Amino acid sequence: MSQAPIISILNGPNLNMLGTRQPELYGRETLSDIEKLCRAHAGTLGLAVEFRQSNSEGDLVTWIQETRGRAAGIVINAGAYTHTSVAILDALLAAEVPAVEVHLSNIHQRDSFRHHSYVAKAAKGMICGFGSHGYILALDALARLIKGSSEA
Ligand code: CA2
To answer: Cα(69) to centroid of ligand 1, in Å?
Structure first.
């Protein structure tokens, strides 16, 4: 049996704090709850998941680099680095792995500095405003993209 395609799910700064504060913005689930949801859903899609979080921009850049030639897709919630990081954008462009950008909150209803995303320039698409369900929608989108690209 061939190996399940790997999806790397990357989470940026402060997302380790989920479930502790600001439930009106980010919901009540912890990041560990979201990881469990993703693993269960990925299983139904025949995908394997690597789920990571870091508060450091360099870790995220390294993890994106490591997806090249190894992972079939990336789901990325880069947190506040979404709005600031050319380094993460460059890593995503160089990786040449399809990426879906996710945000728990609807960034377009928030402060104007959150309306711009560097990640969006490298992503196939962006899902925001659906809370943790956004990660599930991103996995569905990647499963479809991967299936489409493997069909002759
Ligand atoms: O809506 C999202 O998913 C964001 O990526 C979350 C980031 C924010 O900077 C982006 O603009 C949008 C912030 C995550 C902070 O999460 C916390 C959760 C609980 C307590 C404190 C922070």
So the answer is: 30
